[in-house]
Design a protein that fits this description.
Blueprint: H1 24-62, H2 65-73, H3 75-99, H4 101-110, H5 117-134, H6 143-172, H7 183-187, H8 190-218, H9 224-256, H10 261-269, H11 273-292, H12 301-357, H13 364-367, H14 369-376, H15 394-399, H16 404-412, H17 433-444
Helix pairs in contact: 1-2, 1-3, 1-6, 1-8, 1-12, 2-9, 3-4, 3-5, 4-6, 5-6, 6-8, 8-9, 8-12, 9-11, 10-12, 11-12, 14-17, 16-17
Length: about 450
């Protein structure tokens, strides 16, 4: 039986509200579209940055100005993609934080501080990529230094998906969470590993399609070096698309079947497997189109645009079925979270209405120093005398008949199994034992 007690018990945000519930499907659709645009820019960023450094190094080694021109041409899509990728990345993060609030923020906390690498890693990589581009001619006679700057920037860019994918996989699989789960646990899991392999292969494939389009335009240039660079881009683009796409036919199933069983069952039960079939058919057709002109450097424009159109549809199909897998994995958790919210709201409102009509009576417990001590140590943030908040009420605890010594032990080493259905209490070793005994005497006075 799936156990979701590790999920934080905060009140979830079941948005959209205020009569706009009908827009939730729109938000899911917007998430898919925004995610596709973001990922395409990130794919080109990673692929083009690596290709630029490669051709820069190759041109320097072979003293070939054509390879050097290819490397320089690829710096433009890198700088554009890093800005557009970051800009379009905001939309998916906001949508995920709304639709999957308790999961997204909790997984971010579990893998922190590595999640912060997305921020400072991006900043440093951005600065290095701009330095690499705009010193191309300045450092023309210091190529070793120039290539080194490019290599460090590329290495940083390629580490960013490690933090991001770990967070995504963790948010999608809350049944795998434990009290000690951390970044390395999430990163070294098979499902995260296969997703990363699939992502990096897709990066080269998408960049390959981009090179085909870029090469198509550059082959029309009046500049001879640009025309030759266009040919190199076309040849490289075909290879970069064909090989990674073929490899992903084998990696894709490994990604799918590395997820928890209940998610896979929901995925097939909802018919998302048709998206896989459509994606595979479209990818095979794109491969067929390019293989027909594999040795043709002057590949027809119509064939290039056919491949682009087919792969755009394939990518949208892939994004949709992946979203279906995500929702299949998190649906039970979100349903449990919403049910807990509704119960909490009903009980809180009932307690509020009862308190309004019931005359207040004062007991010894109201003036007992233990209550003051409980306020001092923040105990009343999670417990109240009569109403369940995050933890059980003190009247319910008093009914258990714990001795002051037992309460001291439970404060220092909580036992969540004693209170199923509640948010597990964190250990509080900072509270002095003598203070806890005073609080315990007050609690027991509430019987």
């Amino acid at each position: 039986m799936t156990d979701f007690r590790i999920i934080p018990g905060d009140i979830p945000l079941p948005l959209p509200t205020m009569g706009l519930e009908f827009m939730e499907p729109f938000f899911h659709g917007l998430l898919i579209v925004a995610w596709v645009v973001h990922i395409l820019f990130i794919n080109v960023l990673l692929g083009a940055s690596l290709a630029s450094v490669y051709f820069n190094s190759k041109g320097h080694k072979e003293k070939n100005p054509i390879f050097d021109r290819v490397g320089y041409l690829l710096t433009t899509p890198v700088t554009i993609s890093e800005n557009m990728g970051a800009l379009w990345g905001v939309a998916p993060l906001l949508l995920v934080s709304i639709l999957l609030t308790p999961l997204f923020y909790s997984s971010s906390i579990l893998i922190s501080p590595h999640w912060l690498h997305i921020i400072y890693g991006n900043v440093v990589a951005f600065l290095l990529s701009y330095l690499y581009k705009y010193t191309w001619h300045t450092l023309e006679h210091r190529k070793t230094l120039h290539i080194f700057i490019g290599v460090v920037g590329v290495a940083l860019f390629y580490t960013l998906p490690l933090a991001f994918m770990s967070n995504v996989q963790l948010a999608m699989t809350p049944t795998t969470w434990t009290y000690t789960t951390n970044f390395w646990d999430a990163l070294l899991r098979p499902d995260t590993f296969f997703r990363l392999v699939h992502f990096y292969l897709a990066t080269f494939a998408v960049t390959g399609v981009f090179m085909l389009v870029y090469g198509m335009y550059k082959r029309r240039s009046k500049d001879e070096v640009d025309r030759q660079a266009g040919i190199v881009l076309t040849r490289t683009g075909k290879t970069w698309f064909i090989i990674p796409t073929a490899l992903n036919f084998f990696v894709g199933p490994l990604v799918l079947f590395s997820f928890p069983d209940y998610g896979i069952e929901a995925f097939f039960a909802n018919g998302y497997f048709w998206g896989i079939i459509l994606t595979v058919v479209l990818a095979l057709y794109a491969l067929y189109q390019l293989l027909k002109d594999f040795f043709n450097d002057d590949i027809p424009d119509r064939r290039v645009w056919t491949v682009v159109a087919v792969m755009v549809i394939a990518i949208i199909s892939m994004a949709s079925l992946r979203h279906g897998m995500r929702m299949g994995l998190v649906k039970p958790v979100l349903e449990a979270s919403h049910a807990k919210t509704e119960l909490f709201q009903k009980e809180s409102m009932a307690a509020f209405e009862e308190a309004k009509t019931k005359p207040k009576t004062y007991t010894q417990g109201d003036t007992y120093p233990g209550k003051t001590m409980a306020e001092k140590h923040g105990c009343l943030a999670c417990h109240s005398e009569r109403v369940k908040i995050v933890g059980p009420s003190y009247r319910d605890i008093a009914a258990k008949g714990y001795s002051p010594e037992q309460i001291v032990e439970l404060v220092y080493q909580p036992k969540p199994d004693n209170w199923p259905g509640y948010m597990p209490m964190p250990p509080m070793p900072q509270v002095p034992a003598e203070d806890i005994k005073v609080i315990a005497e007050w609690i027991n006075s509430l019987k």
